[in-house]
Amino acid sequence: MPKQIAINNLVVVSDLHSGCRLALCPPEGAELDDGGCYMPSKFQLKLWSYWRSFWDEFVPDATRGEPYAIVINGDAREGIHHRATTPISHNEEDQEDIAFRLLRPLRDLCEGRFYMIRGTEAHVGSSAVSEERLAKRLGAIPNAEGQYARYELWKRVGPKLVHLLHHVGTTGSNHYESTAVHKELLESFVEASRWGRRPPDCVVRSHRHRHIQTEIAAGGQKGETGRAIAVVTPAWQGKTPFAWKIPGARLSTPQFGGIVIRYAHERLFVDSKVWTVDRSPEE
Fold it and tell me: Is the predicted pLDDT of residue 1 greater than 50, yes or no?
């Protein structure tokens, strides 16, 4: 386990869905269990360019070159689910190998301050068994129960408190996209007050593959007015056949990217980087 030092920057990405033909794949391709090799599509090469830009340009700029921790907030691999035809391979080890190749360099970037959150069972297995194997292989920091991939994380960024878990409610309408996210923040305050605990200064959720951020004014311990933030991360997967059936999602282009949570000037900020792709061409 790395030496625990106070950090002012937390980088969060989620929903890699490694092993899907519409998700990240290294440009040199992926070797498969039977000796074959999968080569990325034109779309995947474009997605890879966003991935490299995020880590090589956005993160160093957003963190001002300071140390940071990284959280993978669920659904690191695609899994075998719903009779889907888009996986690169239905061999779980093939998918986990792709995820390992994507994530292993990140552990070095953050000098081992690396955490993994459990995602959706349809993608990562019952009790997220696949993500637990992957997190242990990567040397993620375990929780008090010894789980290398955990269900939630309470993480300090500077003196501020951030709560991370994968799931959040969804909606089929852009008009109500902020509703479940804002409710998650307010419910966190209610639950903390109920038991006399400190509420989070920021809650981070993923799962819905769309970025949004809301905030409310909140008083500090000395009575000053501050703010509390709720944010949902974008993903690293294009539109699968399932997305074309979902209200809202079927009309929008996919969102790719991640966020940096930073404490500076006695305030907590969330900086995001989000890309999309062009819609289908006119004919």
Answer: no
